[in-house]
Specification:
With about 80 residues, the protein is α+β, with helices and mostly antiparallel strands. Helices cover about 30% and strands about 10% of the residues.
């Protein structure tokens, strides 16, 4: 965006369409540290998906009925990480 418009981007907002209660927006500052942290987290998630590691640390309190992965998750056979 900065390259196209020449304007400095200082904040980014994400909007979660399936949020049922509370504020569906998450805002965060745009800086090299937060961008690198986000990329690192994303890379870890991709690696787990590629390794077919769909285990979860604990049973979630709420299972989102709008989740795109609801048919692929292990909701019937919980495999908790140790």
């Amino acid at each position: 965006m900065e390259e196209r418009t020449g304007l400095k981007v200082s904040k980014t907002h994400l909007y979660y369409t399936s949020e049922e209660s509370g504020n569906p927006y998450i805002s965060f500052s745009v800086d090299a540290k937060s961008i690198n942290s986000t990329i690192e987290t994303f890379d870890k998630v991709v690696h787990r998906i590629e390794q077919k590691d769909f285990s979860i640390p604990e049973r979630p309190i709420k299972i989102c009925k709008s989740c795109d992965m609801k048919f692929y998750c292990d909701t019937k056979n919980w495999y908790f990480k140790e």
